[in-house]
Amino acid sequence: xxxxxxxxxxxxxxxxxxxxxxxxxxxxxxxxxxxxxxxxxxxxxxxxxxxxxxxxxxxxxxxxxxxxxxxxxxxxxxxxxxxxxxxxxxxxxxxxxxxxxxxxxxxxxxxxxxxxxxxxxxxxxxxxxxxxxxxxxxxxxxxxxxxxxxxxxxxxxxxxxxxxxxxxxxxxxxxxxxxxxxxxxxxxxxxxxxxxxxxxxxxxxxxxxxxxxxxxxxxxxxxxxxxxxxxxxxxxxxxxxxxxxxxxxxxxxxxxxxxxxxxxxxxxxxxxxxxxxxxxxxxxxxxxxxxxxxxxxxxxxxxxxxxxxxxxxxxxxxxxxxxxxxxxxxxxxxxx
Length: 336
What we know:
Blueprint: E1 3-7, H1 17-34, E2 38-41, H2 55-65, E3 70-77, H3 83-96, E4 101-106, H4 113-119, H5 130-141, E5 166-171, H6 174-183, E6 187-189, H7 199-208, E7 221-229, H8 233-251, H9 261-268, H10 273-282, E8 284-286, H11 288-302, E9 306-310, H12 316-330
Parallel strand pairs: 1-2, 1-9, 2-3, 3-4, 4-5, 5-6, 6-7, 7-8, 7-9
Helix pairs in contact: 1-2, 1-12, 2-3, 3-5, 6-7, 8-9, 8-10, 11-12
């Protein structure tokens, strides 16, 4: 099974934000050593829980300290930016790590409306241009002609080279699936974002409407799930507790850093325990073999080519250990 990692540089109570960013870079090296296929970083803005705001910069840092693992954005929120500038950034990234760069693109703002406007005063007009922006990006990063009579037809993205970023479309709705199918691009559905709601439909739509491209004659799909593994179920559930509280708080519009398992457990006491137990039950949590079995079952049931995992923990060592457990259970890391 091809297994990859999504990291979001999550804030943790009592830990400086800069440490969260450095932990992301260190985790990439750890996951490369374990044999993971890709390491993707996300883009969020004005978010007290997720402090990864500039994935392209983090990608450059990871490129400088790794040798094999593919490095990607999950994703660049395209409405915030001019496509040409994104093309230039990713051409530079590809120069730093030739043939290892994934350019994952998203249409969502990764923020609230006011923050989106602060990033780009024309952001409200950009989402409707998403398909044409994707089209132009594909051309620019591959040094191919833009469409006839394009106003920027003479403009080229440098540096050029013999390799190019692999373009992905990311999403949690049918829209992204349709755009990916239209341009013949790989597609990854954020299963963790909606607990899978609409995921099977989006993947089916992507496959049914897929238009083969020169680089991708066949559809290529992936799912990203939230998962946590530990030597025992009891230990895994212990480390899951801050994430459970974060999920419940998110539903109430409350964002903040992860707190310790003990503080999270005490805070969860007055909450609806049925809701708490449902989150625990629906999350991919347990021993390495248990979590891996659930990931494989979902992969086979939905019929995707790859899986990716995102994990939040208060204890950074527990997060690294979780990826180690999954790598061993998946068979691409040594047992000792």
